[in-house]
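User: Hey, quick favor. My workstation is busy. Could you predict this chain's structure for me?
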Amino acid sequence: MRYGLLTYKEGKEKYNVGDYVQSLAARQFLPRTDQFINREELADYKGEEIKLIMNGWFTHNIHHWVPADAIDPLFVSFHMNNTAAPFMLSDKGIAYIKMHAPIGCRDKYTVQILKDKGIDAYFTGCLTLTLDNYKEDDALRGDDIYIVDPFYNYPTLDKVLLTPKHFIKSVLNGNIFKLNKIKKQLKKVVDKDVLESANYVTQILPTGKQTDAEKFAYAEECLKKYAKAKLVITSRIHCALPCLAMGTPVIFLNSFNTFVDTCRFDGIIELFNRIDVADDGSFTNNFGLKGKINKITLVKNLGLHYKLAESLKEKCSDFINNKFNNSKNNN
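Assistant: No problem, here it is.
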């Protein structure tokens, strides 16, 4: 049997390291990686039969859905975004997904839209919750605080100037006047000493600079940093979720208000210590924080992820070790 691993098509200007973090989570269950398979080209696969863990966001290339017959998939931690669902859930798409049910879903939104189409689906959480293989002994944990892509949904100069179309749109919707919003909001919730001494990391990198191997290496480098951190503050779920797995204290900055974002958080966001920011800039938290996050702020992760992680490990191991038959072979 051959074993595949998902890789990802770059955007026009950037790629998301979080995708590769999700593939690292899948890779740990494989005896080897025989072939990379691009998530957006699943219909084009023409090789031998290959096992593939199908976790993550699906899909940007709606015209290349459904996957080729030679792909033997395990659907766990599967997210079907609301932007793609109308196209993926065609008659052909529904028949394909039913053939591989039950479908393990990363979020409860995906569970519901599949169930609405008569597809057997259940909530698994994200496969990155199983990345405790990167966990370090607490004795190795230093005093480093990492701030990773905070409030990244807010306007930035790079986003506004991306294209003339983006610039015009930012003027019309008022985003051009909100370019300092990230900095202003951070100052409201994080102490000045922390802002000045923290290590800043981004999980969004420019396109055309790295091979897939280098992208996996950068993702691993990020995980190894977080594993030894005193605290991680982030708005990236694929930073926060691995931190839970590694036992690193993490605070999730939640300022998301569009359905594209909130639908993918349904069932996941409850796992975090959070600071929730309203549209008017006011904020609340769910872990008893008084004042701002400072150098002596101590948080204990909620521990709600353990049951999800163990179930995911068992499901992936059984799939790779052929301890259950894929339903497509029974039809």
